[in-house]
């Protein structure tokens, strides 16, 4: 019995490519592209077609190297111009990606959607935003599936609507400044009250009345139209307002008291250590005496090993370490106290700044 030896088909197959597929008139057409170039072409980053297409040829199956027939091209596209057909496939076709690449894209988009939701929502009880890990867990609980062909911001708004049905979450308010004439103020306040908006401040700007208010973003268009009808003007101060951006004076006072008591203890400990170091007599070292340790960071003799360990835990030593990293000379204990007080005053000003 004779055996036939099968020879491989003389077929040149394209591998390691990104395939863009378009189905039209019941037929499938594909183009072979370079990886990571299709999205750049669609977003307008890449302009050169030769940098996107591996070959300006239309295929029925790229992986097998089967070319599309001219009759099929004319029937589906009305022309057999390969370049024009490739451009249409690039614009309207579906990009074929591997399983791991698709999983990575969906994971990144899921994270982007959760980030947008976190920025646009707050907890109605605490008036503070949820963490991104909490948002992601809530999205998993409602079994939300990411649509790779849709915009992340559009999907984020959809996620917010679904989360509001099951969990305590709401859109963070917008902060606006509205300028209206005094005679139009009552109608504006009435409308703001119907929208459950909060008036933060009220003042005068020339012949106009200025209001700073916080309202739900869903009524922003209605508010803008109302202000235009009242011959006023509107300014957006903040797209999203969270509680943690506004410091309450009472809370700050409590925090300041705790910080002051802590700093006093630290200062007392530094003064005691400094006085103990100054009282130590400087005598020449003889054999049998305890070794005197010197701190090279603070450029000071600090006594025996136990005193050296205490010194390394002090704010004086820590502050000089920070100065050493910035290539600044060390300070004495008294100079360090003054420098720390100046830093505390700067922090107080930053906390009170809006």
CATH superfamily of the largest domain: Ribosome maturation protein SBDS, N-terminal domain
Largest sheet: 4 strands, antiparallel
Shape: flat
Structural class: alpha+beta
What's the CATH class of the largest domain, please?
Alpha Beta
Name the strands of the widest sheet in spatial order. Answer: 9-10-8-11
What level of helicity do the residues show?
A: 40-55%
- The CATH architecture designation of the largest domain is 2-Layer Sandwich
Count of distinct strands: 13
CATH topology of the largest domain: Hypothetical 12.0 Kda Protein In Nam8-gar1 Intergenic Region, Chain: A
Q: How many helical stretches?
A: 12
Total domain units = 4
Q: Helices and strands, in N-to-C order?
A: EEHEEHHEHEHHEEHEEHEHEEHHH
Mean pLDDT: 78
Low-confidence stretches: 245-262, 285-289
Fraction of residues in β-strands: 15-25%
Distance between the amino and carboxyl termini? 94 Å
Q: Nearest-angstrom radius of gyration?
A: 35 Å
Organism: Kalanchoe fedtschenkoi (Lavender scallops)
GO cellular component, one term: cytoplasm
Domain U1-type: 290-324
GO molecular function, one term: transcription cis-regulatory region binding
